[in-house]
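Fold these two proteins, one after the other.
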Amino acid sequence: MSGSARKGAERGRVGVWIASAWLFLVVVGGALAPWLPLQPVEGTDVRSKHRPPSLAHLFGTDSIGRDVFSRTVWGARVSLLVGVTAVVIGVVIGGSLGLMAGYLRRATDRTISFVFDSLLAFPAIVFAVLVTSLTGRSMVWVTLVLGVLSVAPMGRLARATTLTVASQPFVEAATSLGATPTRIIRREVVPNVVPTLMSFALIGCGIAIVAEGSLAFLGLSVEGSVSWGTIIVDGSSGRTLRIAPHVALLPITVLFLTVLSLNWIGSVVQRRADSRISKL
């Protein structure tokens, strides 16, 4: 390995450690929010509205005196739960369908690919508006909407990776030795497809978190719960943004760093997965 390549690898490892530490901090903070010494998440004090960041209020206060830091920590619970669960739905359903399409091919591939193409062709915003209008904006339905929207991208990736792996000599050898398709998929294909799916799942989780924030701007996010999207929306009104920009900018910074960390780790995992597949 050349000196520049070695330095690049070292920077990559440092970046992964920093990103992992940030994600650990966010996840633990959100998980332990009920037990942390935080200001009441819905505690209001109009006399303390639009306060700048201070020791008493690390992220300042919003237009009705609520502590923005406390709301940001609590908001991590909803945003992360929605993002992670939506991606898990996409990986399980889309990944399974993609594996079947890439390995069985023929009519199975054509049918499943048609389903993926149909999901990708349907406008995501229209789908979200339609479902939430009919079912309500509960956490379950918002998560299901984002989960369904992640099925096709995950499935297309799983299918493409499966096609590459299924054409390798070790899979052909296992077929020649009489191994059943189920055994080949479980023992030969899945272990080589999962790393690629996991790398994209990390990136997809960041996309889902941003998507939840986008739904909040449309009034379609989780009803009755604090999320990063709803906090940012509350701080994005014209007057608040002019006189107290910290109400929106600090939660946006937390959201940005979280998505950046997920993308960074996902990119590193993806490079390693691509390297592994290229060596098959």
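Now the second one:
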Amino acid sequence: VTAAVDAILDRLSGPGGAGSIEVLVIDSSLVNAFAAPGRVVCVYTGLLKALPSADEFAAVLAHEMSHVQNRDALASLARRLGMTVLLSALGGGRGSSAAQGLLADLVSLRYGREAEDRADAFAVELLADRGIDPAAWPRALASLRDSGTANPGLLRYLDPHSPIDERIARAEKEAAAAGARAGAQPPGRATAPSLAVDWDALVRSLPSALEPPQE
């Protein structure tokens, strides 16, 4: 799992990419991923199981890379907790008790419409630039929409302020334009996955307290 995630991250973080980012894979049934201060992206195994391909995971990762690059998580936490308390908590000062709630805040963090629209556009452009079908992002959104999960982590992508079907339609248009500019094959017509990752094997290998790995 780590090798596959690293390979996808290396592909996305090539020359001119978003820079050094660390991805942590967390064993949990939550269908979620989030950007944390310090150029870290946390991904739950529940999300990996909800996505049918490496391309779609790359799209989610590209989306989170935008939040990292624009420090959306830090800005949102600062607004929620107050900059003084946040800096004290991160520095282990008098506000260190607030640090206990930072992770819970990050897990449930939802960005504004502007930040999400920016991350959507960033994802399709980065995918196209790295030779990955940019339509993987609207497909990822559709997979999350259709996953049937009631997990609140999904709400990070299905923001009620931006109806999901409209968001998917907008992402499809952006993906088509990005693919054309990159001279890529028209979205949806690829005959093979863009990334050399055995996604089915990766998902089967994921550990879970609820679903023990198959022998």
